[in-house]
């Protein structure tokens, strides 16, 4: 069963090239994301590359791995989280004033049963966790906007 698509967007008064430089530097993901504490692309930023990540929520820490599924410079970066089958993406669209940045979490085929179980057991259930993810997306986008506009 497909999970709802989670999405947030923000308009940034900076050129696409500036925003892309921030979004595509995965080492900086912990600066943007309230949950991500570490993200490293193994072998560089390229389609098919793997990443190793560490996430945190309160006292709870958990590792994940991802595979970069799409990489279109200055347009789109997407990666699949192996542990739960979700795909996270950043899409950049030029606007008159700069860039529209859209962050999406898609679980087209639902999340893995173990992930759903763990979210239910340790993270307050799927609905509240998904709201927390959207709040985190909005926080991430606001941080990227602040960095791009300075």
TrEMBL record:
Transmembrane segments: none
Gene3D superfamilies recorded: 3.30.530.20
Domain of life: Bacteria
Pfam families for this protein: Polyketide_cyc2 (PF10604)
InterPro entries noted in UniProt: Polyketide_cyclase/dehydratase, START-like_dom_sf
Protein name: Polyketide cyclase / dehydrase and lipid transport
Naturally occurring in which organism (per UniProt): Mycolicibacterium chlorophenolicum
């Amino acid at each position: 069963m497909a999970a709802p698509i989670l999405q947030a967007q923000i308009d940034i008064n900076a050129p696409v090239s500036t925003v892309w430089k921030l979004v595509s530097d995965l080492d900086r993901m912990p600066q943007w994301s309230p949950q991500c504490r570490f993200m490293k692309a193994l072998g560089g930023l390229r389609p098919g590359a793997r990443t190793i990540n560490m996430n945190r929520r309160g006292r709870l820490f958990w590792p994940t791995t991802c595979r970069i599924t799409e990489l279109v410079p200055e347009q789109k970066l997407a990666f699949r989280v192996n542990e739960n089958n979700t795909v996270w993406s950043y899409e950049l669209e030029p606007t008159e004033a700069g860039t529209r940045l859209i962050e999406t979490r898609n679980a087209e085929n639902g999340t893995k049963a173990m992930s759903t179980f763990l979210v239910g057991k340790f993270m307050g259930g799927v609905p509240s966790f998904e709201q927390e993810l959207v709040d985190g997306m909005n926080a991430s986008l606001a941080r990227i906007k602040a960095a791009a506009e300075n």
